[in-house]
């Protein structure tokens, strides 16, 4: 069983590491950011509501977010574990997650905190592009596609996220420090927090450290 939380500031590399993790381990990738972006793209009621917050760099209200994750964790593909990316982000969300897991007789095995210096975070976010179709993440400067504007994996169009403008990116970092950073203590107190350096030149180097942690879990 591998119940994993991926934590870290915006731009640290959670989504990038999630791609590596799901290619190596049988866990579904549950990104609340991706769920909201999908809803925005489909112009659902959830999308219309979420967009107001996302475009200003703020968090979507806890009750909305918690409801979505609670439902998602009940699905059959979470039977062998799950990889939560971008949730929880507030203490209220973390407490709600604990309650859900207790009711399912599950627990968090590891909270992986990927960190990187603030200047680098902004540079990464403003340079990020991702595939409209398969969602693979690239970076104009650090991880460029082979052909400009086109996804290496599926040939889809590469687009920029609307919340990756400089000012919104800065705001998201601010919100992270105010509301999400305190969760490091929450998971440290539960003895499941492991820090990973997200600034090691290439993403594959970061994954080496992530893999070492997850392989070790597997043996427990
Ligand atoms: P979300 O989508 O979760 O965004 P985020 O947390 O701000 O994180 P990012 O996706 O920006 O960064 P990442 O760590 O995944 O980095 P990535 O791998 O892409 O949330 C968006 C919004 O949705 C929130 O602002 C909020 O409004 C709402 N929301 C979501 N969850 C919520 C919740 N629980 N509660 C309330 N609201 C919620 O990498 C970044 C860039 O760096 C890429 O270009 C990548 O190619 C590059 N890169 C990555 N790793 C490396 C590396 N090692 N070396 C060089 N470049 C790298
Ligand atoms: Mg992400």
Describe this structure as you would to a colleague.
It is built from nine helices and eight strands. It has 220 residues and is α/β, with parallel strands linked by helices. Strands 2-3-1-4-8 form a five-stranded parallel β-sheet, with helices on both faces. A three-stranded antiparallel β-sheet has the order 6-5-7. The radius of gyration is 17 Å and the shape is globular. Bound molecules: BIS(adenosine)-5'-pentaphosphate and magnesium ion (MG). Magnesium ion binds at residues 14-15, 33.
Describe the protein's topology:
Blueprint (H helix, E strand, L loop, with lengths): L1 E6 L6 H11 L4 E3 H10 L3 H10 L7 H12 L7 E5 L5 H13 L6 E6 L2 H9 L1 E4 L5 E3 L18 E2 L6 H15 L2 H7 L3 E5 L5 H16 L2
Parallel strand pairs: 1-3, 1-4, 2-3, 4-8
Antiparallel strand pairs: 5-6, 5-7
Helix pairs in contact: 1-9, 2-3, 4-5, 6-7
The protein binds BIS(adenosine)-5'-pentaphosphate and magnesium ion.
**Spans where pLDDT lies below 50 across 5 or more residues:** none
Helix vs. strand class: alpha/beta
Number of helices: 9
Dominant shape: globular
Question: Can you list the ligands bound to this structure?
Answer: BIS(adenosine)-5'-pentaphosphate, magnesium ion
Order of helices and strands: EHEHHHEHEHEEEHHEH
Radius of gyration: 17 Å
Helical content class: 40-55%
Q: Major β-sheet, in short?
A: 5 strands, parallel
State the end-to-end distance. Answer: 10 Å
Summarize the structure.
With 220 residues, the chain is of the alpha/beta class.
């Amino acid at each position: 069983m591998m119940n994993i939380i991926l934590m870290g500031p915006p731009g640290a590399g959670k989504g990038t590491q999630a791609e590596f993790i799901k290619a190596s381990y049988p866990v579904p990738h549950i990104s609340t950011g991706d769920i909201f972006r999908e809803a925005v793209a489909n112009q659902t009621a959830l999308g219309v509501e979420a967009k107001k917050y996302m475009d200003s760099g703020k968090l979507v209200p806890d009750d909305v977010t918690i409801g979505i994750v609670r439902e998602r964790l009940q699905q059959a593909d979470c039977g062998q574990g799950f990889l939560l990316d971008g949730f929880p982000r507030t203490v209220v969300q973390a407490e709600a997650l604990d309650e859900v897991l207790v009711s399912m007789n599950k627990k968090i095995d590891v909270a992986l905190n990927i960190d990187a210096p603030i200047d680098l975070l902004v540079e990464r976010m403003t340079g990020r592009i991702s595939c409209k179709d398969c969602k693979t993440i690239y970076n104009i400067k650090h991880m460029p596609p082979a052909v400009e504007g086109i996804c290496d994996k599926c040939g889809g169009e590469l687009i920029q996220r609307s919340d990756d403008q400089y000012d919104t990116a800065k705001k998201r970092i601010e919100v992270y420090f105010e509301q999400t950073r305190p969760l490091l203590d929450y998971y440290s107190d539960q003895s499941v927090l492991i820090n990973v350096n997200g600034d090691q030149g290439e993403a594959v180097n970061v994954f080496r450290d992530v893999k070492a942690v997850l392989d070790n879990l597997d043996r427990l």
